[in-house]
Amino acid sequence: MSPPSLTERRSPWVVFTRCDDPWVGAETAELLNRGGSVFRLDGRELRDPGSLFTAFARELTFPSYFERNWDALVDCLWDWHSHATITDDVAIIIDDADELLYADFLGTLVSVLCQAAWKANLQLDADGNPHNDEHWTPRALHTAVLLGHTPPAAFAERAVSDQDVAVVFDGGRLSATLTGPDWPGFKA
Known about the structure:
Distance between the termini: 8 Å
CATH class: Alpha Beta
Number of domains: 1
Strand order of the largest sheet: 2-3-4-1-6-5
CATH superfamily: Barstar-like
Strand content: 15-25%
Largest sheet: 6 strands, mixed
CATH topology: Barnase, Chain D
Radius of gyration: 15 Å
Oligomer: single chain
């Protein structure tokens, strides 16, 4: 398996890794060099869905009509991202994310982040066909979840509590992507 990327439009969409993993620094530097943007969230603020929605809205400057629910989070990450004029590619970095292991909504969060990335990266419509709107250009959108003391592998079972998410542990990182017939374009 090739290493995960924050700069390319391919899965995996979410990567759990140690906060001192040199891969994060190299990938974010490359993304910034290419004109992309990196948004950092404090995982300690993401203890419940309400505070999670608030943190995402604040840090990624979502529009005021963001409805603060899971579907709206997918839509704002994808739609905002797809129509962004400031930057092309985006990485979301969640620092100090160890406590997310115990969040009841972890599987939903991973699924939502994967769904938004799938839409932004592949620009496929609901049938899995390329989106034909000339104003919607595919762009890289990935999330790195940085851990201080919890091993990435500890997140494997909880991250896949949504049936459409698959994880792979490789190179000390746990990578998540969407899988199955509902997500055309899946590549292991």
